[in-house]
Design brief:
Largest sheet: 5 strands, mixed
Structural class: alpha+beta
Domain N-acetyltransferase: 13-153
Number of domains: 1
Strand order of the largest sheet: 1-2-3-4-5
Oligomer: single chain
Helix content: 25-40%
CATH architecture: 3-Layer(aba) Sandwich
CATH class: Alpha Beta
CATH topology: Aminopeptidase
Order of helices and strands: HEHHEEEHEH
Distance between the termini: 43 Å
Keywords: Acyltransferase, Transferase
GO molecular function, one term: acyltransferase activity, transferring groups other than amino-acyl groups
Number of strands: 5
Protein name: N-acetylglutamate synthase-like GNAT family acetyltransferase
CATH superfamily: Gcn5-related N-acetyltransferase (GNAT)
Number of helices: 5
Length: 153
Amino acid sequence: MSTTADTSLTNATQIRPATVQDASSVFELLKQLGTEYAPDRAAFDSAFAHAVDDRATTLMLVAAQPAGAVVGYAFATIAHLLHTNGSSAQLQELVVDSSVQSTGIGTRLVEAVEAVCLERGVRQLTVPSRGSADFFERIGYMSTADFLKRVFD
């Protein structure tokens, strides 16, 4: 794809809040995330409905092309933390379809998440990044902590 085509694709792509109609497209994108969890449709449907409906503690945005195809999504959670003197958001998932990666859509999704966070008075946005630290550092994020986890079955 040429640079001109990349730029026009990125500019034509609309970043908007997700709707319940986006569920199947987002589920297909989720399969590209490449985590240790195999996507379960029933669990996804429940979580997606919550992400779309609960705008107080979640933020779910999609990147849609002019024909309507969803080619990316960003999912963030928002919590009221004690040490941040206000709300803190965490970008939990960022997925851009492999066919349009490196076209600026991921950056636009992150910028849109940041804009909504600012509108909502969020004090900080954190990103737990296992495989994409270079991307986030390139757009102004810095490493401040390691995240450890325990998985409960």
